[in-house]
Amino acid sequence: MKKTIRDFDFAGRTAIVRCDFNVPLDAERNITDDTRIAGALPTIRYLLGQGAKVILMSHLGRPKGGACSEFSLAPVAADLAEKLGCTIWFESVDTVVDDKVREQAASLKPGDVMLLENTRFRSEEDDKDKAVQAPFAGELASLADVFVNDAFGTAHRHHASTAGVADYIPAVMGFLMEKELKYLGEALENPKRPLLAILGGAKVSDKILVIESLIEKVDTLLIGGGMAFTFLKAGGIQIGKSLLDEEGLALAASLTAKAKEAGVRLLLPVDVVAATAFDNDAPASICSVIAQEGIPDDRMGLDIGPGTIELFTREIAGAGTVLWNGPMGVFEMPNFAEGTRAVAEAMAEATDGGAVTIIGGGDSAAAVTQFGFAERMSHVSTGGGASLEFIEGKTLPGVEVLNEK
Is 39 a residue of the active site? Predict the structure, then answer.
């Protein structure tokens, strides 16, 4: 069992905290969704309450070729200052750590907070060679007494700021990381049954390990979104111009057979909303995708249909635990958002009825937020890629380096 911030005495100590402040910004660099910042606040407030000196760090976007103002964490510093009600020391430093940063870190008093510039301004941060990462990780570690990793969204990456720092100073997890591991771990190892998983997204080949892992654990697996068409095609259904993962056809057939052999109910759409083009205003109709019926050659499926919505929501209503990753359609387009919205609403109602509902990050998290159901889920993960790798059973570097109790 890994140590948490409850297992360390922070009084008078300096904590360097890896957060996930990779937030979306508009053209004027205003934060358009502060979910990730809000998620870090309980850990930050706890540390301050324990008399710690707090240094925060994060990446933002994928700056190419080093530092650039477009990816500065300045907007995050301003937002944090408002949310925490205190001054946040921040200076945009291309090297992330320099003499001024070191002096400021050394002068911190209990209750003070500083934010480092975007860790990806240093190319060593995410270099694939750990030996190249090491000097930068050492610079970060030299600023503090203990490393707190609260960035589940990057826990599947071995970067200088997510894992390398732990080579130099004690490492524990924050509350957000703890919550993520608790919900995902219990859902997979000791779930309230029936355990239902819902998968969407585009390519079967991208999620083959996830599906294989889930087949060993779930009672029912619902497949929607773009990947459903590959499963339908593998089953002999015509899918018109719908998204098809050619490489995933054999995989889809194999996974369907594995589910049957394991006694897992794998349910596919029975109807879809199909349009003549990938356009919100394109003419659309409901197409059955059972038996020998299918989608006409001039149409593409962009959402699950009403019959599938009824089928999927009924399954959700009867589940004890629901794990969802991947939208049911092109929910960014209003005319093709109903399937995703209906699944989100059904999960919210299931939560109200006592079920455990977990959103596996990424587009699913964006969807439940967009439709106003995020607060009614048991847990909305902050890490799409990390949650998928956790479900696959992979070791997450950002978790592996934490100290054991």
Answer: no
